[in-house]
């Protein structure tokens, strides 16, 4: 997947001198997945083996999601944003590691973060050819731009029959059509916390998929399963439940 | 040291003498990069061109001649174009195409256009072939199709009055083998670009859609109605396919495992490639087995004809009700939109015809 990387230096954390090159390191984000601490990979897909907080039994058949704008902040309030994005495709084991071709300075950062999805100003309809080529778009009638996540699978419904679900996270929109409105932002910033970087670093980031169905809203797949993109209330519930989905498990350096 | 210098001088003299006494042929074909349409350039990634098979004028011309020449078949009666005719967007009108003996295949002939943008390079309904070159390799020896052998085909081409020279011009060698044959055919096939439908011109602000076509596009894009875009793309993807494999609810039990027979994964049983929605007016019948004769049947299938099965794609909506339950007006409008993706300039392009 093509990764478009550019650097926005809000404040000068980098410098070009020799000493600074010695003091800079490379980093990458590795994404792993679990269901309440049980590791999940694409080998676990396509069979009903998960149970959510609502006691719905479900499978996962497709999971891909987008992260963007990794940010390093120091205690002085200075920050560097690495503009760019990565579409993590768990189904096909693609892009589970994201290594921007940018170095960061050794030291302590008060917070490292990334955006789940796109900020609104980056969520530009049709702007990214690699995402267009993989049909990651959101219909213009819902504001255009791109999906944040596609989590598809089947669950056993109240009739004990397998039924499809499409947990697709996008920018919440109302009044679909030529002039949709947006009740609230549904991208969110994932904070990984305080880190000290002394060498090339691999950030091991976990997504607990079960959290999407759990906290604070217990998700009932019998009620919310498909056609969720035009459902702004569902999008806001996803936004709420997404707040505790990601965690920084460790840093290898 | 003096001895070494003497050797170098002698070697140099030998090379110069050789050069003056021998004619050196330097192979040089004419690069012919694909003409990428504006919408493709603006919206999606560049096409896939193998580094060992660049597009050249001579290679494309040779590939075109081979594509229309029945010499590739065992009894010289069938060309690629017999099942992939220009007037049908390079498919044919049969449910199953017949080979040289009249035997029928088991899948509907696929149309050929915009294949250079198949980024995963999995070809055929079941993705059994990787790369366009390899795809072109298969029908020649398929016992139901051309039923030939590559040894026989290579011999016939080698003994032909024109082909050795054409291969010399295209590839710098007059020694013909299957690899060069398929490279030439693939070069021609990559030139088969369809980008001039009514809807393309609408996106380029050259024309307007009818109200029916516009509403049909909205049905296509509305997750509460057609929800076609998840597999077939949008105005931001001029391919109108994701080139991936889905079970779209045709059957509750499978007589043809499709993608599953290739991957060996039961979770892939009953999955077939999403075809592009371009040029549907020319490409009936539809689906991998050509079971639907008309677009109305196709739309009715998604609206109320879905069959449940363990591998049905979760993107299929309202399976228990048979489908997305479109109104008759929405069905008609959706059909109008789909037909607006038909590219008459493509099927009438003289560069793609046997003339």
Model description:
- The complex is a heterodimer of chains A (253) and B (355).
- Chain A is built from three helices and 15 strands.
- The N terminus of chain A is likely disordered.
- Chain A has one domain.
- The two termini of chain A are 25 Å apart.
- With 253 residues, chain A is mainly β.
- In chain A, strands 1, 6, 7, 10, 11, 12 and 13 form a seven-stranded antiparallel beta sheet that branches. In chain A, strands 2, 3, 8, 9, 14 and 15 form a six-stranded mixed beta sheet that branches.
- The N terminus of chain B is likely disordered.
- Chain B has two domains: 156 residues, Cytochrome c-like domain (Cytochrome Bc1 Complex, Chain D, domain 2), CATH 1.10.760; 149 residues, Cytochrome c-like domain (Cytochrome Bc1 Complex, Chain D, domain 2), CATH 1.10.760.10.
- In chain B, strand 1 and strand 2 form a beta hairpin.
- Helix content of chain B is 38%, strand content 2%.
- By secondary structure, chain B is mostly helical.
- In chain B, the strands form two sheets. Chain B has a two-stranded antiparallel ribbon. Chain B has a two-stranded antiparallel ribbon with strand order 3-4.
- Classes of the chains: A mainly beta (253), B mainly alpha (355).
- Chains A and B meet through helix 2, strand 11 and strand 12 of A and helix 11 of B.
Topology:
The complex is a heterodimer of chains A (253) and B (355).
Chain A: E1 6-9, H1 18-22, E2 24-35, E3 38-40, E4 50-51, E5 57-58, E6 62-73, E7 79-89, E8 97-98, E9 103-105, E10 107-116, H2 129-133, E11 149-156, E12 162-169, E13 188-197, E14 201-208, H3 232-242, E15 246-252
Parallel strand pairs in A: 2-14
Antiparallel strand pairs in A: 1-7, 2-3, 2-8, 2-9, 4-5, 6-7, 6-10, 6-11, 10-13, 11-12, 14-15
Chain B: H1 2-21, H2 38-43, H3 57-67, H4 80-83, E1 122-123, E2 129-130, H5 132-141, H6 150-158, H7 163-171, H8 178-190, H9 198-203, H10 211-221, H11 229-232, E3 245-246, H12 259-263, E4 272-273, H13 295-304, H14 328-339, H15 344-347
Antiparallel strand pairs in B: 1-2, 3-4
Helix pairs in contact in B: 3-7, 3-8, 5-8, 10-14, 13-14
């Amino acid at each position: 997947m093509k990764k478009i990387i550019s650097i926005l230096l809000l404040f000068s954390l980098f410098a070009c001198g020799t000493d600074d090159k010695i003091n800079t390191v490379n980093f990458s984000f590795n994404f792993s997945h679990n269901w309440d601490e049980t590791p999940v990979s694409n080998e676990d897909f396509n069979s009903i083996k998960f149970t959510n907080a609502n006691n719905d039994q479900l499978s996962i058949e497709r999971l891909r999601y987008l992260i963007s704008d990794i940010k390093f902040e120091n205690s002085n309030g200075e920050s560097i944003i690495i503009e760019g994005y990565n579409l993590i495709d768990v189904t096909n084991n693609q892009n589970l590691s994201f290594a921007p071709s940018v170095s960061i300075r050794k030291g302590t950062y008060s917070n490292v973060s990334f955006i789940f999805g796109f900020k609104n100003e980056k969520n530009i309809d049709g702007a990214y050819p690699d995402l267009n080529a993989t049909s990651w778009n959101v219909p213009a009638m819902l504001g255009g731009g791109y999906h944040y996540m596609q989590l598809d699978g089947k669950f056993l419904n109240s009739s004990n029959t397998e039924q499809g679900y499409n947990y697709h996270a996008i920018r919440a929109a109302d009044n679909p059509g030529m002039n949709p409105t947006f009740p609230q932002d549904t991208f969110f910033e994932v904070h990984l916390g305080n880190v000290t970087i002394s060498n090339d670093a691999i950030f091991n980031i976990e997504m607990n998929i079960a959290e999407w169905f759990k906290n604070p809203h217990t998700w009932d797949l019998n009620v919310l399963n498909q056609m969720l993109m035009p459902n702004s209330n569902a999008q806001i519930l996803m936004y709420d439940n997404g707040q505790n989905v990601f965690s920084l498990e460790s840093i290898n350096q | 040291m003096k001895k070494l210098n003497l050797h170098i001088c002698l070697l140099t003299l030998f090379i110069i003498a050789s050069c003056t006494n021998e004619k050196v042929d330097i192979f040089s074909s004419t690069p012919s990069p694909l003409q990428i349409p504006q919408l493709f350039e603006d919206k999606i990634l560049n096409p896939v061109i193998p580094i060992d098979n660049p597009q050249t004028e001579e290679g494309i011309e040779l590939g075109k001649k081979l594509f229309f020449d029945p010499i590739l078949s065992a009894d010289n009666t069938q060309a690629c174009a017999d099942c992939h005719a220009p007037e049908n967007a390079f498919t044919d009108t049969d449910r199953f195409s017949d080979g040289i003996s009249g035997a029928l295949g088991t899948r509907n002939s696929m149309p050929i256009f915009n294949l250079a943008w198949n980024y995963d390079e999995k070809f055929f309904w079941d993705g059994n072939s990787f790369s366009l070159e390899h795809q072109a390799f298969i029908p020649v020896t398929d016992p139901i199709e051309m039923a030939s052998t590559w040894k026989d085909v290579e011999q016939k081409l080698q003994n032909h009055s024109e082909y050795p020279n054409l291969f010399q011009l295209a590839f710098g060698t007059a020694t013909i083998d299957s690899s060069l044959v398929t490279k030439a055919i693939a070069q021609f096939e990559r030139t088969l670009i369809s980008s001039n439908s009514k809807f393309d011109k609408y996106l380029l602000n050259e024309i307007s859609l009818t109200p029916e076509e516009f509403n049909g596009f909205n049905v296509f894009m509305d997750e509460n109605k057609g929800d076609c875009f998840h597999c077939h793309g949008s105005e931001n993807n001029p391919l109108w396919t994701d080139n991936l494999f889905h079970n779209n609810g045709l059957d509750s039990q499978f007589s043809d495992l499709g993608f599953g027979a290739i991957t060996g994964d039961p979770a892939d049983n009953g999955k077939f490639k999403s075809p592009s929605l371009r040029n549907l007016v020319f490409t009936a019948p539809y689906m991998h087995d050509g079971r639907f004769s008309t677009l109305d049947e196709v739309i009715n299938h998604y609206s109320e004809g879905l069959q449940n099965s363990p591998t049905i794609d979760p993107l299929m909506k309202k399976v228990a009700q048979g489908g997305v339950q479109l109104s008759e007006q929405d069905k008609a409008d959706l059909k109008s939109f789909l037909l607006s993706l038909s590219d008459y300039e493509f099927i009438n392009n003289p560069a793609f015809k046997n003339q």
